[in-house]
Design a protein that fits this description.
It is a single chain. By secondary structure, the chain is α/β, with parallel strands linked by helices. The protein has a single domain, classed as Zn-dependent exopeptidases (Aminopeptidase). 48% of the residues lie in helices and 13% in strands. The chain contains 7 helices and 6 strands. The protein has a 6-stranded mixed β-sheet, with helices on both faces. Helix 4 links the parallel strand 4 and strand 5. The radius of gyration is 18 Å and the shape is globular.
């Protein structure tokens, strides 16, 4: 049994690696030609609305809310946006319709003009409006990008949280976690986690949704990697690959 299953498992791994390599080459070629077009298209549906939106990419924090930070001053909000933009570009290059909740360094509390004064309510309305943007796109998948931190510097590695409200959330979370472990962080033994009420977006979203803690800014080595554009591109590619696989498995 073991002898028969091992070659099959190896073949499956090789096929997946070849597919990922081909996709990476296509993406790199496409990004050079399409970068200016992507700048115009961020925040709106791909192909001026002709392609249905399948993924909503949320860059956590922004503006006066910097999120966590590294010892070198790296701000979570900036790394979140950089990774989110790369995921957007890669998905768009492959023909996947997607939107971003924010494309600039700002919070979204006043996007819908609900109040005349947001004093003391900016964070609440920022989260509400991120949820609104996800819900405006029907059954699109929500992918929220964040960075982690802890009081001890020894912790590192990506970890994915999933919404308990849609069965596809756990499937997508496991795909992202496994793909990152396979191709980028082989020593990462973290498991996906079901989100609790403290994660506003995942607690309330009704469509498949995940939140990716891409790494620990409190770990100096990992913070250095997350500041490196090449590493962020690899990270974005593994995340995008998992999303592609999920969409394909669901007929999208």
């Amino acid at each position: 049994m073991n002898g028969a299953s091992a070659p099959g498992a190896r073949a499956k791994t090789v096929i997946k690696f070849i597919a990922l390599t081909v996709v990476a080459a296509l993406v790199c070629a496409a990004l050079g030609r399409l970068s200016l077009m992507f700048e115009r298209r961020r925040g709106v549906a791909s192909s001026a609305g002709s392609v249905p939106v399948l993924v909503v990419i949320d860059a956590g924090h922004g503006g006066e809310d910097g999120g966590t930070s590294g010892a070198d001053g790296t701000r979570e909000k900036d790394v979140n946006l950089a990774v989110a933009k790369s995921v957007f570009d890669m998905l768009s290059a492959s023909g996947v319709g997607c939107v971003m909740t924010r494309t600039e360094d700002k919070l979204l509390y006043d996007e819908y003009g609900d109040l005349s004064d947001y004093t003391g309510k900016k964070k609440v309305y920022d989260l509400k409006n991120r949820l609104r943007r996800a819900e405006e796109n029907g059954d699109a998948v929500l992918v929220s990008i964040h960075m982690n931190a802890f009081s001890s510097k020894k912790y590192s590695g990506l970890q994915v949280y999933y919404s308990p409200n849609a069965s596809g959330s756990a499937v997508l979370a496991n795909l992202v976690q496994t793909t990152v472990r396979t191709y980028l962080q082989p020593e990462n033994d973290r498991e996906t986690k079901r989100a609790g009420k403290s994660i506003y977006l995942l607690d309330r979203i009704k469509t498949p949704g995940i939140l990716i803690e891409c790494g620990f800014l409190s770990n100096d080595e990992e913070c250095g990697k997350l500041n490196d554009q090449g590493y962020r591109q690899k990270l974005a590619l593994t995340i995008s690959s998992a999303i592609w696989e999920y969409l394909a498995a669901n007929g999208k």
